[in-house]
Every structure is written in C-alpha cells, then in structure tokens.
Amino acid sequence: MKVEYTLIKREKDTGARLGKIKTNYGEFETPMFMPVGTQGTVKTLSPEEVKEIGSGIILANTYHLWLRPGDDVVAKAGGLHKFMNYDGPILTDSGGFQVFSLANPKNITEEGVTFKSHINGDNLFLTPEKSIEIQNKLDSDIAMSFDECPPASASYEYMKKSLERTLRWAKRGKAVHNNPKQSLFGIIQGGYFEDLRKYSAEETVKIGFDGYAIGGVANDNESKEEMYKAIEYSTPYMPDDKLRYLMGVGDPIDLIEGVIRGVDIFDCVIPTRLARHGHAYTKYGKINMRNAKYKEDFTNVDATCDCYACKNYTRAYIRHLLVANETFGARLLSIHNINFLINITKNVRNAIKEDRLLEYRNQFIKEYYGEN
Asked: Could you tell me whether strands 123-126 and 113-116 are parallel, antiparallel, or unpaired per DSSP bridges?
C-alpha cells in the first residue's frame, strides 16, 4: 500500500498540523523527524538502535546507493528494507541535491544532468526517468521526484527557468513511475520569491502526487528568516490531505518553526554529524563534549533525556571516548542527538493537541538559547 496521510487536528493559533500516516510498517503520528541513513545506514547505529530511539520513517540516498552497491544489487536482495534490515518505512531522495552539488550549470540540460562521480571521477548522466527507475528498484515507501536544486542566491530569472524545468521533469518522472506500493512526492522550488513559490506549488499540485516537499531551503547560506519565508510562501498552496515534507532541515528551532508554518516531516544529517564531532544537544543548548570542563563531569549529557546514552553513561566517560577517538563515543552521541530531535517532535505533537505550540516555542527558545 502507499503511504496514507490523515489530518487529525489543526492548531487554533498557528498553521501547525497534527496528523497520522499509515504505512506498510504501521501507523505513525506527525509532525515527525526522520533520521538520515544516506548509504543504507544511519551512521554508527544499527537498525535496531534506530527503531529503539523511536524513529518512524528514515531517509536513504538514491545517488549514493546507485553508485554503491548499485540499485540492481539492492533489488536482488529484495529491496532496501531487506538489504539493510530496517523494519520500518523508508524515504529515498531523488539524488538531485548531490548531483547538483557535483555539476556545473553548463552540464544541466533539458534531458538531464551530466556530472562526475565523487568516488572515481567517472562521467555519469542522471535523468528524471533514471532517478525514478532507481528508486523503483530500491523499493522505498516514498520516492522523490528529480528536481534541480539551484542555490538560494540564484537570480529571479534563473530560479524561474529552473523551476519550470523541474515541473517538466516531475511530469516525466511520474510518467515512468511503476511501483504500485511506492508513494511519489513532488518538490516545490522557487527560492525566496513569493510568486515563484506560489506558482511552483500550484503547478506541482496540478500534476498530482501522493505528497509534497518544500525544496531549496537548506542548500545555501540563507538566513532563518529567509527559510521561514520560503515555507510560508509554499504551504498555503499544498493540499490539506497530503503529507508535507521540508527537505534537509533539522536544527531544533527550525523543526518547531516549520511545524508552526504547516510542515509535517523533516530530515537532516545534522544530529549524527554533530555527534561525530563531539557535539550534543541539551535542553539548555548545544555543548562540545570534548571540552576539558567535562573531564570530571559525572552527570549525564542531559538530565531531562531518557535515551540509552543518558541513562547509562556520563559526560566524563563520553568525553574520554571522544578524546581517545573511540567510535562508541560518536555512537552514544548519535543516539542522544537523534532522540533529542524525535523528542522535540513528540513535545510539538502534544503542544498541538493542547493548542499551546507558541507557548512551547517561546519556552524552548528561552531555555535552549539561554546561558548553559
């Protein structure tokens, strides 16, 4: 079956939505944060650990899996769920973000994109049809349309030309999509131009997809205000009965602000990336666990956290692991950081139920950005 979304409640003072998604792997409430398993694994963690943290959907990357081990290998294994042993829903991105970070503008044509492999420099060519074909073989629960990801700094003229091409690519991708169990999402572009976001959203909805994503808000050095505006310019034109996905966004406050503006699901590599660099989220802000002040700190990472790392290990021990370059330290912080973001979405859902999301947002800001 395809992923089905049901809108349960809209908060009275904001655009926040409480919803439920039905998948082949059970039902999950939204808003939801999706951990990222780029190459078929959430870095340093087992699928069982990811499930234990409370994840619903996780994300895997079409481009990386196409190159290694290859979509045919994954298909022969019985699809991505069996290949990586994840008993839960999986979303695959289209590969577009990675492709456009490797390609020059002159390599983008109406047919597709020519670029060099980041692994061995081979010339590669990816089209909307090929991206969908790969995702059909990966057999994810949600596939994404192949879109162009221009930088936020692109001119109005280029952005309009780009989103027109993305619309044509979306139609081509939908035409060849042939996995009846797999949902296909369209992607809204348009940078920070209100009229382009409106146009992109309306035209993408006309094509008709199983869900819709807001793209192009996490691929440049845009300000948070610009990001929030792009969301505000998009969500009013997205259907109430379809899932809304903000791509590549995972800073704690951005989850809350995105929900306030009508977003349902988010993904980002940031919690595990920060963990590998020794950084941990806490209720009172982000901390660098490598700092010497934690050498004899025998409290847990966050006194308010119920994750495996916080229930069993101290800051002093985790700091020791990080300084000694022991992988277990990054694993523990990855568990903690993902759990932290998932807990934010739990708190957000409860706040929506009680019509107090703005109050929760204000309290979160006061504590998270106050003095540690």
From this structure: antiparallel
Q: Partners of 28 in the beta sheet?
A: 21
Segments of the chain with pLDDT less than 50: 371-372
| Residue 216 to residue 149: CA distance in whole angstroms | 6
CB neighbour list of residue 189: distance below 8 Å, 6 or more residues apart: 147, 148, 149, 150, 159, 162, 163, 166, 196, 200, 215, 216
Q: Are residues 252 and 293 part of one domain?
A: no
Active-site positions read: 93, 267
206: its two tokens: 């006309």
The range of the structural domain enclosing residue 325 comes to 275-368
CB-neighbour burial class of residue 97 (10 A; exposed 0-12, middle 13-18, buried 19+): buried
Domain boundary among 221, 247, 267: 267
Cα(311)–Cα(305) distance, integer angstroms = 8
Q: Are residues 124 and 64 in the same domain?
A: yes
pTM tops 0.85:
yes
